UniProtKB/TrEMBL annotation:
Species per Swiss-Prot/TrEMBL record: Pseudodesulfovibrio methanolicus
InterPro entries hit by this protein: Flavodoxin/NO_synth, Flavoprotein-like_sf, Metallo-B-lactamas, ODP_dom, RibonucZ/Hydroxyglut_hydro, Rubredoxin-O_OxRdtase
PROSITE patterns on file: FLAVODOXIN_LIKE (PS50902)
Span of domain Flavodoxin-like: 254-398
Origin superkingdom: Bacteria
Protein name: Flavodoxin domain-containing protein
Record-stated family: In the N-terminal section; belongs to the zinc metallo-hydrolase group 3 family.
UniProt xrefs under Pfam families: Flavodoxin_1, ODP
PANTHER family: ANAEROBIC NITRIC OXIDE REDUCTASE FLAVORUBREDOXIN
Upper taxonomic lineage: Bacteria, Pseudomonadati, Thermodesulfobacteriota, Desulfovibrionia, Desulfovibrionales
Length: 398
């Protein structure tokens, strides 16, 4: 895509990765993604972040269209992950910027990653201000939102903030603004991104939103490094969404995620789903053979209860459930009720193991159900009642 002037003298230069489906090696990007970076043409021409290395040609072309014969004076590196710094070394080599501004942790990451010895790097702790002509850039460290080096760059004259990964979505589009696309799909992809990328850092999100409020920053444009940009009233909308995401208030919803060998665990889980549904709880029923762990996590994110199921396999649980639970634990979901279900043949460790995972995630555990060999009507009745009991626990929690 060609450069887009988002404000007078400020350009979106990013690359649209239409074919990307694997995002960072662990989550799905079903709609592709974008690598947004920005150029401010002022007395000092300033580049905000870069793009993934394979889009170096796109970045050069876009820079040439805007810059003509002018050079890049300053580079701001809000985040050093390779999809945003992939072209940083090439930019430094080609344009020889006077300064590269980054956070204190960004400097450490930059040295470790690029092994530079002579780059003109300048550290910008929170509160640092930089005049680039008629505009000012000020910097706010957002350490662990979502990497140690993360920071925001704010331009008060434009009431515009560059947020790197915060407020992002994985969505390859020809549109650049949130008000140009379907709102339902935007919110779905924004929540999916939060659930898989930002969720563990929710306390930092809340702290950052509070800091922005305390500092009285006026924001009329939000420019994340992935997906659509926000302007006007959409800025308040996006920040309200992030406030709600970070607070992790559960909805009247349960996710049953399981794997099964000969369908006994699956049938027991179905009986639980019936009990939940009959009590008015919305249920997502997700077999790990058919669902990617990042899609499951997008559903777990706002659910009040998570029921995990697996038969016993080699004195453990099935591998796809071990993968799912490892992924889920790393994202540290909060405010969940948990329970387990599983069948077994000659040994029955599955429910004990699954329950331990739930306890390790600080979930409020409702005792699980296990059954040897093929479940009968009595077992199904027990599972159905278990679903109703979990529904009651959900209602008490909401």
């Amino acid at each position: 895509m060609r450069p887009v002037e988002i404000k007078e003298g400020i350009f979106w230069l990013g690359a649209v990765d239409w074919n990307r489906r694997d995002f960072h090696g662990y989550s799905k990007a079903h709609k592709g993604t974008t690598y947004n970076n920005f150029l401010i043409v002022d007395e000092k021409v300033t580049l905000i972040d870069t793009v993934a290395e394979e889009f170096w040609g796109t970045l050069q072309c876009n820079l040439a269209q805007v810059l003509g014969d002018r050079k890049i004076d300053y580079v701001v590196a809000n985040h050093l992950e390779p999809d945003h710094s992939g072209c940083l070394a090439k930019v430094v080599e080609k344009y020889q910027p006077e300064k590269i501004y980054t956070s204190p942790m960004g400097q450490k990451a930059m040295k470790a990653h690029f092994k530079y010895t002579d780059w003109p790097v300048e550290v910008t702790p929170t509160g640092t201000e930089l005049s680039i002509g008629k505009r000012t850039l000020s910097f706010l460290e957002t350490r662990m939102l979502h990497w140690p080096d993360s920071m925001l760059t704010y331009c008060p004259e434009e009431k515009l903030v560059f947020t790197n990964d915060a407020f992002g979505q994985n969505w390859a589009t020809s549109e650049r603004w949130a008000d140009q696309v379907d709102r339902y799909r935007l919110e779905e992809l924004m929540a999916n991104y939060y659930a898989n990328i930002v969720l563990p850092y929710s306390p930092v999100v809340l702290k950052t939103l509070a800091t922005i409020k305390e500092m009285g920053l006026e924001i009329e444009t939000i420019c994340p490094d992935h997906g659509l940009l926000f302007r006007g009233d959409d800025c308040a909308w996006a920040m309200e969404k992030y406030q709600a995401y970070a607070e992790q208030k559960p909805k009247n919803k349960a996710v049953i995620v399981y794997d099964t060998m000969w369908h006994s665990t699956e049938k027991m889980a179905e009986a639980m789903a019936c009990g939940l549904a009959d009590e008015g709880v919305s249920v997502r029923f997700m077999c790990m053979k058919n669902n990617h762990h990042s899609d499951v996590m997008a559903e777990v994110f706002d659910a009040a209860a998570v029921i995990v199921g697996s038969p016993t396999h080699n004195n453990g649980i099935l591998p796809l459930m071990a993968d799912m639970l490892t992924y889920m634990k790393g994202l540290r979901p909060q405010n969940k009720i948990g329970s387990a279900v599983g069948s077994f043949g000659w040994s029955g460790e599955c429910v004990k193991i699954l329950t331990q995972w739930l306890e390790d995630m600080n979930m409020e555990v409702v005792e699980g159900i296990k059954n040897q060999y093929i479940p009968d009507h009595e077992v199904f009745d027990k599972c159905y009642e278990q679903g109703k009991a979990i529904a009651a626990a959900i209602k008490a929690k909401l």
